[in-house]
Amino acid sequence: MQTFNSAKKLIAVCDKNGNTTSMLKKILKFCNRENYVISSTDKPTHENIQPAVLLLSDVDNRIFSNEFSVCVSDYAFSAVREIADLQPITYSSRSDEADFTAKNIRITENGYLAFEIIGVGVIGRVRLNIKDKSQQGCEEIVSNALGAASAAISCGIPFAEVLDALNNIQFDN
Fold first, then answer.
1. CATH class of 9-171
2. Sign, Cα dihedral of 94, 89, 106, 24
3. N or C end of the chain: smaller count of CB under 10 Å?
4. CA 66, 72, 74 angle in degrees (round to 5)?
């Protein structure tokens, strides 16, 4: 019999371009969290897998499920009634009102995309190793990373481990 901690847990992600999902998969792999299954929100819930986190980095016209114990959403969507009803943990690279925010976004002399994550009593520095920053804007890359990090933290992964993952993974866009 599986214990609760080793049981498979579902993270459902609404992510039209797939970049947040890709970053989240890399964070979970780096942090050795193989007990999480990541699926798109448009796929049905998997049998025998406990719904854990709903990550909304994009929104469509669906009504979102309240079967997940945690909802993580881009702050820009927190005014949508169906999302507000889920009482989401929010992230933003633009608004200080979000639970997790990105500040001081910049490209370092060495070509890294750097920023600070501030949230819920913690501050951490991130230096993303992104191969090609020209395909999408820096703010969008940071938002994707922040969404993935917020979901990972919501899964119970310690903030320090998530920062370690972000600072050590090669991200492709």
1. alpha beta
2. negative
3. N
4. 120
pLDDT in tens, 74-116: 999 988 888 999 999 999 999 999 999 999 999 888 888 999 9
Lowest mean pLDDT among 33-47, 67-81, 125-139, 145-159: 125-139
What are the boundaries of each domain within the chain? 9-171
- Dihedral angle sign, alpha carbons of residues 156, 12, 21, 5: positive
Instruction: Report in angstroms the alpha-carbon separations of 83 from 24, 70, 124, 133.
Output: 21, 11, 27, 31
Asked whether the beta carbons of 135 and 18 are under 8 A apart, the reply is: no
pTM (predicted TM-score): 0.89
**8 Å CB contact between 145 and 160:** no
Q: 168: exposed, middle or buried (C-beta count within 10 Å: 0-12, 13-18, 19+)? A: exposed
| pLDDT reported for residue 121 | 83
